What we know:
Blueprint: H1 8-24, E1 28-29, H2 32-43, E2 48-49, E3 54-55, H3 62-65, E4 88-89, H4 96-101
Amino acid sequence: MSEKTPSFLDMIKGFATDVVEYAKQGAPHVTENQYKERIRTCATCPDLIKKSMRCGKCGCLVEQKARWATTACPASKWPKVKIGSGGKKIQLGTKKDESKSNNPKASE
């Protein structure tokens, strides 16, 4: 395996696609066990550039991409993750008006 990654432009396009889907789905993460399994799979892949932990196929930083439930291995080596089944979902923001209406003391 060569230490070559895709072009910078191709990596940016791939990352942009991944981050848009990640945000649209509510930024879901895989479980810790799913993450560890993904990392183990990558560690045995001949396309992994170990010194930088980058995928030689898509150029991603494996340790980051493996956390996102919305991403997939470009070589189809990761099992598909069903969003909302065991992964963590983070809340990106809350409405200020909601917190006031749910807290009677906030209006006093």
